[in-house]
Specification:
Helices cover 78% and strands 0% of the residues. It is mainly alpha-helical and 211 residues long. The longest helix is centred in the N-terminal third of the chain and has 30 residues. 48% of the residues are buried.
Length: 211
């Protein structure tokens, strides 16, 4: 019963992250004036790249995004929503960033939890959670010829790592994964919210003076 509940939790997180990241990919495609096929491609790429990378690395093959048609369906649904209701979806300020922040939270905790289920050690599980969170956004940005947000945004990969670390720590303390994924996801989103809304950032090196 416990394993079944974990499977349900992971599926919910994965599909939620897929949908939100697919929305962000489709919005980016519309912003770059791609046609409907391009929108669908970008929606699928953004929504599933992180999960596919995670599954391949932990040996869960074929990846869920390929083996289960639901992931493709969710991605296509997100693409159609943006295509037909673009004025509604894109009305938000920093639209791609907000969808990206939610997807980051979903995938960071899902990646860490799935890594733990497959027997990875806690450190690698946390790192894999971070990789799962940033993968979709990186591919989306590369496909539209932008510098990936993980390289130019403050508290992006760090936010994903923090959320994944909560899941891993809770696992070591035998806390319910349902609780840890909620807390970890909220922490990840809160850090990205602060970075987007209030400009939170890590210290940066000062350029040398003179020539």
């Amino acid at each position: 019963m416990h394993e079944q509940l974990i499977h349900v939790l992971l599926t919910m997180l994965d599909l939620g992250g897929t949908f939100v990241f697919a929305i962000s990919g489709a919005v980016a495609a519309v912003r770059h004036r791609l046609d409907i096929f391009g929108i669908m491609v970008l929606a699928f790429a953004a929504g599933n790249a992180g999960g596919i990378t995670r599954d391949v690395l932990i040996g869960a093959v074929p990846p869920a995004a390929i083996a289960n048609w639901t992931y493709v369906g969710v991605s296509i649904l997100a693409g159609f929503i943006v295509f037909f209701w673009d004025p509604v979806v894109t009305r938000l300020d920093h639209k791609v960033q907000w969808f990206d922040a939610v997807g980051l939270a979903f995938f960071a905790v899902a990646g860490a939890e799935k890594a733990l289920v497959h027997g990875l050690n806690p450190l690698m599980a946390a790192l894999l959670g971070m990789l799962t969170g940033i993968g979709g956004g990186m591919l989306r940005d590369v496909l539209v010829r932008e510098i990936p947000v993980v390289l130019r945004a403050d508290l992006y990969a760090l936010a994903a790592l923090a959320g994944a670390a909560v899941v891993v720590t809770a696992h070591l303390l035998h806390v319910s994964p349902w609780v840890s994924t909620v807390v970890g996801g909220l922490l990840c989103f809160a850090l990205r919210y602060g970075a987007i809304r209030h400009g939170w950032h890590l210290p940066t090196a000062k350029p040398p003076r003179g020539g």
